Amino acid sequence: MPAETPSPRQGAGRFAPSPSGELHIGNLRTAILAWLFARSSGRSFLVRVEDLDRARAGAEEAQLRDLAAVGLTWDAQAVRQSERGDVYRDAVHRLQDAGLVYECFCTRREIAEAPRAPHAPEGAYPGTCRNLTEEQRARRRRERPAALRLRAGVDSRTVRDALHGGYTGVVDDLVLLRNDGVPAYNLAVVVDDALQGVDQVVRGEDLLPSTPRQAYLAELLGYPPVEYAHVPLVLNREGRRLAKRDGAVTLAALADAGWAVPEVVGRILGSLGLPADGLPQALAAFDPARLPREAWIFEPPAAGRR
Ligand code: GLU
After folding, report:
1. Which of 18, 75, 130, 223 would bridge 50 by S-S if both were Cys, CB 3.0 to 4.6 A apart?
2. Is there a single domain that holds both residue 125 and residue 44?
């Protein structure tokens, strides 16, 4: 199915990993949740490879293989963001035509050191390049390439989330196109979800703070609103986000340590309060209102050969 064709009317959910390495059990748990949310609400389910930034050779294949191995099914060939430059540029052009884009020449350091209004929210772009004169822009263009930023008309937005209720967060003049020409994550995700007919976004809780920006951008682009569910993360014993160095956390390493795929899936489902005997049984019992709201502290088995 061509990516630009919106899905049929029933809507779609999705899982959108960045192919920066193998998925760990936390990523797999989020993927299973996204699948359960989509399938239990009669939606189709899509996988999108978010490879604009952190792609590592072989990671995409390994991730898709592991998603299939745990029993997930998706309804169209996985879409790769790196092949969709045109759709992101079209969206930027539409915003430009509406006068909602400006060039930004700031370095990270300049942004960190810029003076801010006393009430300016943490992490918000201070607006340094918002009102440069044409002459100032011409001079700065000779020094470094510009990123393109959205001229936001609001400074916060409230979104509704199935697990968090109303969530209010910062909307600032977010980057649309980085100064190396790569579309920014917030733009790509919003454009792709809309063009792929995604109307349900299930992902890790760490992305909740980006959501007000994305909802606002979607609105400016005339896209329909989507439902959100930001699900709890998986943490290590120290209470930090799970990472490869935490031992056997990928499907391959877990298999080596003695946990075959059904055991891993069973433990993930058990951690969600669902029947641990398989995805079909978990799907039959799935009720978003009864999901745990706290992180899952994962104890890996003693590592095997890897
Ligand atoms: N690609 C992002 C990640 O792996 C997820 C984006 C999303 O689900 O919106 O963190």
Report:
1. 18
2. no
Cα(260) to centroid(ligand 1), Å: 27
Cα–Cα dist 147/183, whole Å: 10
Q: In this structure, are residues 291 and 32 in contact, taking their beta carbons and an 8 Å threshold?
A: no
**184 class by beta-carbon count within 10 Å (0-12 exposed, 13-18 middle, 19+ buried):** buried
Residue 202 domain-assigned (yes or no) = no
Residue 148 token pair:
């393109």
Q: Which residue bears the tokens 């733009």?
A: 187
Say whether pLDDT at 303 is over 70: no
> Which domain does 255 fall in, by range?
13-83+233-297
Among 50, 53, 66, 200, the mutation site with the greatest number of ligand 1 atoms within 8 A of its Cβ is 50
The position carrying tokens 């006393």 is: 118
Mean of pLDDT values over 17-23:
96
**What is the pTM for the complete model shown?**
0.94
Share of the chain above pLDDT 70, in %: 96
| Residue 116's CATH number | 3.90.800.10
Q: Could you tell me if 127 and 69 lie in one domain? A: no
Q: Is 185 annotated as a binding residue?
A: yes
Alpha-carbon distance of 89 to 51, in angstroms, equals 16
Q: Does the Cβ of 14 fall within 6 Å of ligand 1?
A: no
From the candidates 244, 262, 287, 290, which is the catalytic residue? 244
**What domain count does the chain have?**
2
- Give the C-alpha separation, 32 to 261, whole Å: 13
**Assigned domain for 239 exists:** yes
Residue 36, classed as helix, strand or coil, is helix
Together in a domain, 254 and 270? yes
The answer on 178 and 125 residing in a single domain is: yes
The pLDDT of residue 121 is 80
